[in-house]
Amino acid sequence: MTLIRFAPIPASLPATVPFVGPETLQRQLGQGFAARLGANENGFGPSPKAVKAMQDEAANSWQYGDPTSHDLIGALAAYHGVSAENIVVGEGIDGLLGLLVRLLIAPGDAVATSEGAYPTFNYHVTGYGGVLHKVPYRDDAEDPQALVELAQRTGARLVYLANPDNPMGSWHNGGAILRMLDRLPPESLLVLDEAYAEFAPDDAIPVIAADDPRVIRMRTFSKAYGLAGARIGYAIGHPDLIAGFDRIRNHFGVNRIAQAGALAALADRDWLAHVQREVIKSRARIAGIAQQNGMTALPSATNFVAVDTGRDGVFAADLVKALQGQGVFVRMPGVAPQNRCIRISCAPESKMAILDARLPKALDTLR
Amino acid sequence: MTLIRFAPIPASLPATVPFVGPETLQRQLGQGFAARLGANENGFGPSPKAVKAMQDEAANSWQYGDPTSHDLIGALAAYHGVSAENIVVGEGIDGLLGLLVRLLIAPGDAVATSEGAYPTFNYHVTGYGGVLHKVPYRDDAEDPQALVELAQRTGARLVYLANPDNPMGSWHNGGAILRMLDRLPPESLLVLDEAYAEFAPDDAIPVIAADDPRVIRMRTFSKAYGLAGARIGYAIGHPDLIAGFDRIRNHFGVNRIAQAGALAALADRDWLAHVQREVIKSRARIAGIAQQNGMTALPSATNFVAVDTGRDGVFAADLVKALQGQGVFVRMPGVAPQNRCIRISCAPESKMAILDARLPKALDTLR
Q: Where do the coiled-coil regions begin and end (chains A, B) (predicted)?
C-alpha cells in the first residue's frame, strides 16, 4: 500500500524497465565486462572530430544548449535535402518515441507493432494508456503486410516498423516500405525506426517525400555515429507533425555537448565510411566465430548479428548468461522463435578476439 | 487545417514555448550577446574537475550512460544523508517536473502555483491536461499561506513553490516551509523547487525527512554547479514516489558525460564555495550598478538579482529590449507588479563591467 496517489495510468503501470543496463549486470556479477557487445553500441567510437568538439564544448556547459538546435537542424536539413521544419531533434529515438506517442495516442487508442520488436516503443505506448496489438515476425523479419492488415483491423493510430530490424538485423527493401505506406489506413501513421539505416544497403532506405503525412522517420546519432551516451537523435516528418513536438517537448532538454558532437559527427563523412567498413568486417568475423562454434549468423543490415544457436530460447538464455559470466555482455530476442538466437554487437577486433576465445568456454559450461 | 490528428490534449495545446533562448534572440538581432545574463546560468562555470571529467568521458560516448545513475545517486545519497531510494536523477529539473506532473496529474486535476512563478512547470501541467490555479505574489515573494488556502479550496494534487524564488530571488525561511507542509490538505503534494538552494542562507532550507510523503524536493546541477547545458538534476522524496518515476521515465535518457560531470562537480566542494562567494560579490555589484542608474536591487538568495526599475512593466520590457540591443541578454518577470523589475544573472566581473557600461546607454535610448 503506497502513500502516494498516482494518476490512473501511472498507477496501473508495472515497475519494470525496458532494458537492464550492463552496469547493473556488472554489479550483480561482481565483475566488469571484458567485451560490451549487448547494446548495439558502436565500439568503433565516435569521430575523433566529434570527441574533440565535445571536449571543447565541456567548459561551456554552464550555458543551456540552444533549445531550437538551430545549427544542427540546419545541417541535417541540408544533409537530407529537406527543410528545417521537417526535422525535430530530441534526446535520442527513445525520447522522440515517447513524445510521438504522447502526441498521437489517447488512452485506449490502438497501436500496431510486432511481437518481439523494440520494447521501449511498447513501454511508451503502455505508459500513455495506448493498447498494443501485435503480429508475429515472418522469416525472422517484421512483416509489413501483416502490420498493414493489423492496422486495418484495429484502426491503429501508430504502426511501428524498424527497418533494418532490431533485434534480428533483417531488413526490407525500400519498395516494400512504400507499398506498406500505400496500403495503410488513413488514420495510421507509420513510425519508421531507421536507427540502423547507415549500416543498411542503399536500396533498403525508401525515398519518401519529407512532407508525406503518412510516416515519421526516426534517426539517431547513437549507432553509426557512435554517440549513444550523448543522447541525441532526430525525426523527419510532415511540418505539422514536427511542429507538434514543440507543444510538449522539454525545450531545453537536449544537452549542449551532444549538439556540438552531433554537428561534428555529421560533418565527418570519412569517419562514418570507416565505421561502415569496419562493421561489415565485424559482421563477417561474428559469422565466422558462430560457425566455428556450430551456430549460424543471420544476415544483418545493422551493427549487430543475430546468431542462431540451433536450439531453443532456454538454451539461448543460458548461453547469454554463460557469456556474461565469461565477461562478454550480449543480449537476445525476447520471443519465440527469434529467441533461439543471441544478439552480438559489432566491435573492434580486440573485442572480437575476446568473444572468439570465450564463446567456446561459455558453451562448455552448458554441456 | 492540419493533416495530423493529434490526441485530444496535445491537439488543444498552443504552439508556444516557455522561454525563447538567447541563441534565437541573437539570430533575430543579427549580433551576439557580449554579456549573457538572462537565463540564470552560472558564468563562473563548472568546477575545472567537472570539465576534465566530462572531457575524459567524451571518447566513451559510444556507450549509453548507466540508466540507474548508480554512482551519482550513491554520492548524492551520501551527501544529503538519505537513502538511494529517496533519489531520482533526471534530465534537469525541467525533465523531472514533466515526469512528476505525468505521474500525479490526470486530465482535469487541480494544480496550485503562483501568478508569475516558473512557466515551465505550468507548461507541463497544461501539457498533461491539468488545471492551473494561481495566487498572486505577496511582497515580491511566493505566498505559502495563500498557496495552502488555494490548495484547500481547489483540492490541488500538486502545489508548486520555489524557494528561493525565481524570478524574484526572494526566499522564505525553512520554518515557513514546514508550517506550509503541516497545513497542506492530505491530497496535495508540495513540489519544492530548490534549484537555487546552494545560493540561499542555511536557514532558508528546511530540514525535512527524506521519507516525508508530503513533499518532493527538486535540485539541479544547472545553477550552483554550473552544468545547465549538461542537463542533469535530481529529486528527493518518499521511496514510493521516487520508484514511480521508473514506470515512466526515459531510462537511458541521462547522458553519460553529464553523469561524469555531476559526480565530479558534487565532489568539488571548494569550487562550490568559490562560486558561492563570487555570487555574493556579484549580487552586490549588480546592486551597485542598479543604484548608479537610479534603480533598486531587491534582496536575493539566488545567483540573479531582480532590479526594480521604479517604473512599470512596459518600461521594464523596453529596457530588456534596449539592453539586448546593447548586447546584454537579460529577462524579466512576466506579471505585474513584479514586471516592474528586470532580472540580471550574476557573472564574472568582465561581464559586470559590460553591464555597467551599457545599462546607462540602454536607459538613454528610452529617454
A: none
